[in-house]
Design goal:
There is one protein chain. It contains six helices and no strands. The mean pLDDT is 91. It has helices at 6-43, 47-75, 87-93, 97-104, 108-124, 129-162. With 163 residues, the chain is mostly helical. The longest helix is centred in the N-terminal third of the chain and has 38 residues, at 6-43. The protein is globular and about 65 Å long.
Length: 163
């Protein structure tokens, strides 16, 4: 076991918090601006209006993350096994971790966010509703897929470093 002084321990906690805050800022910026830019390019809706929509999406995602805290603390459930997501169903159907992570991202909050985005975008554009649904769902599926790949790869990286 590695021994560290109390000062080194506090420094490590400080840098951990700085890293988490940096990650939170990058994630919030990504959620606010990247989908907004994509929706703007496809629909032609003013960019600022789409950023306002994404602010509501960000708040909904933060509320979703807040629901994970009691589930993790009191029930010992990981985020992908939340009873509000399809991850727990996927874990009973398959043993493939990637699919469990992917379906763990599909939650009631995410379904509400998709519906909200379609309704909001529909209000400001003449684009057909079916195309809006395909665009929004497709973008979410792409982001869920990429996040699942990162989580899946992270499991192997961490196992390689620590085992």
């Amino acid at each position: 076991m590695i021994k560290v002084t109390p000062l080194e321990y506090e420094q490590q906690k400080f840098w951990f918090m700085v890293g988490r805050m940096g990650y939170a800022a990058l994630l919030a910026g990504f959620i606010l601006f990247v989908p907004s830019l994509l929706y703007y390019a496809v629909t032609g809706i003013p960019y600022r209006k789409i950023v306002v929509m994404q602010q509501v999406v960000l708040v909904a995602m933060l509320i979703e993350r807040l629901t994970w805290i009691p589930l993790a603390v009191w029930n010992g459930l990981d985020w992908y096994l939340s009873p509000l997501s399809l991850g727990i169903i996927a874990s009973y159907i398959t043993e493939q971790e990637y699919l469990i992570y992917f379906f763990g991202m599909v939650s009631l909050f995410q379904v509400w966010i998709i519906g909200f985005q379609v309704k909001y975008l529909r209000y400001f554009t003449d684009m057909r509703k079916l195309w809006l649904w395909f665009m929004v769902i497709g973008l979410h599926v792409f982001f869920w897929s990429m996040a699942s790949v990162l989580v899946f790869a992270d499991q192997y990286l961490l196992n390689g470093w620590f085992h």
